[in-house]
Amino acid sequence: MSPLLLFSFVIGYFLLLLGVAWYTSKNANNDSFFIGNRSSNWMLVAFGMVGTSLSGVTFVSVPGTVGSAGFQYFQVVIGYFFGYLAVAYILLPLYYKMNLTSIYNYLEHRFGNTSYKTGAIFFILSRTLGATARMYLVINILQIFILDNMGVSFWTTTIIILVLILLYTFEGGVKTIVYTDTLQTTCMLLGLIVCIVAIMGKMNIGFTESISLLNNKSMLKLFNTDAQSSGFFIKQIIGGAFITIAMTGLDQEMMQKNISVRTLKDSQKNVMTLSVILLVVNFLFLLMGGLLYLYAANNGVAAKGDDLFPTIALDNHLSVAVGMIFILGLISALFPSADGALTALTSSYCIDILGLKRNNKLNESQKKRTRLMVHFSFTVIFFLCVIAFKWINDKSIIDVILKVAGYTYGPLLGLFAFGIFTKRSINDKLSLLVCIIAPLLVIGLDIVNNADWFVHKLSLTGNFANSIKALSDKVFHGFKIGIELLIVNGLFTYIGLYLISKPAVKTS
User: Fold this and answer.
1) Which of 12, 187, 244, 306 could form a disulfide with 332 if both were Cys (CB 3.0 to 4.6 A apart)?
2) Is residue 435 part of a domain?
3) 143: domain range?
4) CATH number for the domain including 18?
5) 30 falls in which pLDDT band (50, 70, 90)?
6) pTM (predicted TM-score)
């Protein structure tokens, strides 16, 4: 497939995004950028957030997991649904009642300025790492299959993509992203469905026969009943619920779009609609993964995991049109997570760290100039992070970075849970210390629990390596901690906050 043709298709898609951005950013101001003037249509937000929730990692990696784990990822997706219930009926009413622009203002009202800044800092760190890790995965695929053949360097590709994202988010912010995310989600789902139909057509099978073939290959296994395994279904469902609570309900990027909706009721409809759509879409991604593995087995394709989908879509196994649709779907999966993160990070830094909305010494024009400079600065940080991932040049580093990003949501989970479910007051100045210690304890726990993996990854040898393995066997007896590590992180933070707290003073 011609790299030039695919590249032209990508550029055409960007021009369309820029057109949408130009139209939606007319007469935009700072409130448009931060919360879309609280006038976003809930249906557009719900549909557009599908793309933000999935990202390029889901588009490529979820189908790749079917070969080794069947449909077990759907256990986590079931957990997501329960997590969205908590977001809709516990967190959103709180945010709307307080009329928040930044959700971390809640921590200031509840605990004080240090807790407020701590929440914002942990969000900024986590979202920066997570967003750039996702960007690296997709940019690397575009580089390998298109731009290397055109003699374009990786850093040039990264700059071009970031500049284009910067251009269409620079003015409109959330007001623009609500519409561009809707367009991109449409293209991503179109790519998913077209690829499923194309692979079925290539193998000359229908839906019912596909399910039968997958069942015969034991790929439809949904529930993992091994209680020792990190994939045990109870842990996966509970972990999935808390991932949604933390990484959606306590994440400024995700909630920034929700609180841009005019009313609480509409925002709740948005969240619950999103939860149902994600059940269906993730099932389709898993179905496509199963079909890809069936096709690979029948046609001698050696690729697997993250490489499987791009290889079949772009290496002349399917038609040119399907390859173009795949690229469209891939970049459509990338940009809702990248543009939303860039906008949310700008908003959080301006509002939470710089206190821009409260600064009465600056006029609207000066505030806008500051916001634009912060937006540009985060674009530069994104570039440096993506280049760092390329320099490390290890595919597994993406999983590691996403796991590290997950660590940073534990303190947020603990802070919000302590604030909502207790009336105790804390020593606000010590909250940052608690939120640093808790993830460090969790990292230590994870190293001991996964001793073999860390010893191999860090090339550890000798007595130290043997001691870690022996400690792991003695403490865990083969039990593997999975995604519930986030819950443990939040629990450590909660306990730490309790230790620095005292009963609330009763008022007569």
Assistant:
1) 187
2) no
3) 3-25+41-392
4) 1.20.1730.10
5) very low
6) 0.80
